[in-house]
């Protein structure tokens, strides 16, 4: 593939002969170079281990530190100075497309269905010709003319090319183009490519260091004059080094029919100050249905509310942001929102989860890796979320069945009822008269923390013991579940399953002791799993210190006891020992090589110092 020779500018993307990618941050002479008049490119490498410094060098003249550029990542080893003649500045879009997708009349790789000069040795020691059938049929799918979607990931595309009209002739019919991980850095070049793809509906530009489209490229301005790129429905701009929401607001005119916009892993923290309206709400984007702002440095709900007036928004993805809470929505905010993803946030209280009930159309929720669920098992957290958010029908990608919701709500009501009873019972000591006013305040405080409790308590009144009329002990006794325990171990698989009514607070270690007595299998050899119902997947009970409730074991669950395969464990231990030994040997070898290189470098430095000293004496 031939390269494109250009004069680099600040921000130009480059690659070296080893395929490492970087960005030009400086162009000019280098103070430490032998030839002070020679021009170098100051590069910040994407892989910080590729460089040698942070953009500063020691001056050859006076030994002072001279900074030519500063690495944006803050790394001390991401910078290098390289002559432009040793850098690759990428290839054009049309050339890459024609080389990636072969011509129909191009020579076959396997004429007569046989690879020339390619043989395999048979078990008998004879050579056998390798055959390749169906090449002509496959080739039909390698013709740009016959397909609508192309992927040119990591192909080194950096510009549209000199003759952009060729793009329209060759690829104007394409509906989806994936340019992830290329060398595009100029939005003007992106505009030149889109201009020639009149049928384009989906464009993937993630992992291109494009930055903000600021000022708006001329190609985009011209497109707005003609009504914008009306066919484009999905635009993927994850990890493009965007630093502000401001320029994004201009996309509403450039892509007027945009339905999906992906902006993950960019810095959009200024969203609240970059909106055009007086109420800090994003305007425009009349057709936008999905917005992904994961890992975009959002920290407050007020920033998220900036998107609340998008009229058609159905799915909002905001994973991996440091958001600490969710507020209730009001009026027409998020009026069509069906799905929310908030995994990896810093949610500090369940109030935010409870407030999801104010999203009237919410059906799909992804929530996890949060401080409030960190102390729970996956099954327990799922059950609590299902109970607290009444409208959710899909949670973390899995459907919420009617039975699962029923069991989750019952478990939740029993848990809150117990909390109510415990709060009331601790309002005075044994000899004091209960203070009804204090009790009432404590009840209100508990119910305030569980806004769904009263409705769910009415719904499941028959299955719980309400806190108002019983002792803490009676409430605790009602927090029990019926389970059936089966042995799958070879020595006891014929033993009848045992049905038990157990407290949900029972530790798994205690359950294993019960299994040991019933099925005569040592605790250390037991593997326990459970199924909530016949259609559920097996879930492990793999922490002896946690309880049945922690794992979300519900009423009617089936628990299965399996036996540890000791031989398999021995084999795994042997493999692990071998792997550790090999890793140690590699480390020793690498250290030896590093020491040799270090000594060689030190010898070179000493030699240069001796030369300088000798020259000084002369």
Strand order of the largest sheet: 10-12-13-14-15-16-17-18-19-20-21
CA-based shape: globular
Spans of 5+ residues with little confidence (pLDDT < 50)?
Answer: 465-477
Label the structural class. Answer: alpha/beta
Q: If helices are DSSP runs of H or I spanning 4 or more residues, what is the number of helices?
A: 16
Count of beta strands: 26
CATH topology category name of the domain at 90-106 and 142-232: Leucine-rich repeat, LRR (right-handed beta-alpha superhelix)
Task: Report the major sheet.
Answer: 11 strands, mixed
Determine and state the CATH class of the domain at 90-106 and 142-232: Alpha Beta
* Overall radius of gyration: 33 Å
Strand content: 15-25%
Instruction: Give the distance, in angstroms, between the N- and C-terminal Cα atoms.
Output: 52 Å
Task: Name the CATH architecture of the domain at 90-106 and 142-232.
Answer: Alpha-Beta Horseshoe
**Share in helix:** 25-40%
Q: What is the typical, i.e. mean, pLDDT?
A: 87
Which structural traits does this protein have?
618 residues, alpha/beta, SH3 type barrels, Leucine-rich repeat, LRR (right-handed beta-alpha superhelix), 11-stranded mixed sheet, 5-stranded mixed sheet, 29% helix, 17% strand, Leu-rich_rpt, LRR_dom_sf, cytoplasm
Write structural notes for this entry.
- With 618 residues, the protein is α/β, with parallel strands linked by helices.
- Among the domains are: 13-89, CAP Gly-rich-like domain (SH3 type barrels, Roll); 90-106 and 142-232, Leucine-rich repeat, LRR (right-handed beta-alpha superhelix) (Alpha-Beta Horseshoe); 409-477, no CATH class; 479-564, Ubiquitin-like (UB roll) (Roll); 572-618.
- The protein is 29% helix and 17% strand.
- The chain contains 16 helices and 26 strands.
- β16 (290-292), α8 (301-304) and β17 (315-317) form a beta-alpha-beta unit.
- The radius of gyration is 33 Å and the shape is globular.
- The protein starts with 12 loop residues before the first strand and ends with a helix.
- Keywords: Chaperone, Cytoplasm, Cytoskeleton, Leucine-rich repeat, Repeat.
- Residues 10-88 form the CAP-Gly domain.
- Belongs to the TBCE family.
